[in-house]
Specification:
Order of helices and strands: HHHEEHEHEEHEEEEHHHEEEEE
Number of strands: 14
Shape: elongated
Bound molecules: biotin
Radius of gyration: 22 Å
Oligomer: single chain
Distance between the termini: 46 Å
Strand content: 25-35%
Structural class: alpha+beta
Largest sheet: 7 strands, mixed
């Protein structure tokens, strides 16, 4: 009920009477009064005026289950939110919840991670109070070989959500890093659990540098954050809800064809590698070529000097720009 009260107060500029809240949610005045009291304790500035009712003056810039739920406009994605102030890794949590039977669309969000994980066994530095660390649980019915495309669907969704919230046009470094001003702002780690040859769960882990101002030495030249670029605050809960909305739309499209054919144009418009020379770090031998776009199944198309085209599979190799990170 708390998240519904916040949503209602946020959407209404005027006062809402206690009576109206009671009727709307079918609860007693005491229950409303208690919920308002709890919200105030959590940092919501709610004005209560006799004979007029309640009015929301300001919300805390804190991430909480209520803040996220109150902004959610999806059917499946994020319908269940597990919020943790601090955890090891939201991907690990989501995998555990999946084993315990959590439903599709369950989203784990943390304010801080102590052992955040990146791709290729790297760490994902996850300080409190400023960024987004979330993992979304899916229970797809398709075959495991299709799952690698989800990571591209997720990257596109996050880029679209960032644009909708901030008007910042991030670009995608294939397959799933998001880049602004040539620096990384988002990383995605997708993990699949199989049961025999069937998918038991897919966890899409998304880390976004939202408010971080300082980065450790090893990534300070290649990482930035939304607020550093924008010069103003970004409401994390709002961006999370927008990501769920964009992902729900794109996932529905993807599920119909089980390919990226209908999302390819949107993806390629954001693909920073397109038309650029890339270096493919294939364990069987490094090579260079021009990135032409992606295939319907998400591989990167690279044209070599002699005109032959190679399809690069995500996960197998890493692709670098010839002059640095991008
Ligand atoms: C990368 O290396 O680019 C992927 C980084 C993924 C980080 C996110 S943060 C939320 C989720 N939990 C984790 O431990 N990792 C992912």
């Amino acid at each position: 009920m708390k998240s519904k009260i916040i949503a209602l107060l946020r959407e209404n500029d005027q006062y809402i009477s206690g009576q109206e809240l009671c009727e709307k949610f079918g609860v007693s005045r005491t229950a409303v009064w208690k919920a308002i009291g709890q919200l105030k304790k959590e940092g919501y500035h709610i004005e209560a005026v006799q004979n007029k009712g309640y009015h929301l003056v300001s919300v805390p810039n804190l991430l909480s289950r209520e803040e996220i739920l109150s902004r959610m406009k999806t059917k499946v994605m994020g319908r269940e939110v597990r919020y943790l102030g601090q955890t090891g890794s939201t991907n690990q949590d989501a995998k555990r919840f999946a084993e315990e039977g959590a439903i599709e669309g369950t989203m784990v969000v943390a304010d801080c991670q102590k052992s955040g994980r990146g791709r290729r066994g790297r760490n994902w530095i996850s300080p409190p109070g400023e960024n987004i660390y979330l993992s979304l649980l899916l229970r797809p019915k398709f075959s495991p070989d299709k799952a690698s495309m989800l990571t591209l669907v997720a990257a596109l969704s996050v880029a679209q959500a960032i644009f909708a919230e901030t008007e910042l046009k991030s670009e995608i470094k294939w397959p799933n890093d998001l880049v602004l001003e040539q620096k990384k702002i988002c990383g995605i780690l997708t993990e699949m659990t199989l049961e025999a040859e069937y998918i038991q769960s897919v966890v899409i882990g998304i880390g976004i540098n939202v408010g971080q101002k300082q980065f450790p030495e090893e990534i300070k030249d290649t990482a930035t954050s939304l607020e550093l670029i924008l010069g103003k605050k970004v409401v994390r809960a709002s961006l999370i809800a927008q990501i769920m909305k964009c992902f729900e739309r794109n996932y529905e499209i993807f599920q119909k064809e089980l390919s990226l054919v209908s999302l390819k144009t949107e993806y390629e418009e954001l693909l920073i590698n397109k038309g650029k020379e890339v270096c493919v770090l294939d364990p069987r031998g490094e090579y260079r070529g021009i990135a032409k776009g992606i295939t319907d199944t998400g591989e990167l198309l690279v044209e070599l000097e002699d005109g032959t085209k190679k399809e690069v599979y995500a996960g197998e190799v890493s692709v670098r720009g010839v002059y640095g990170y991008v």
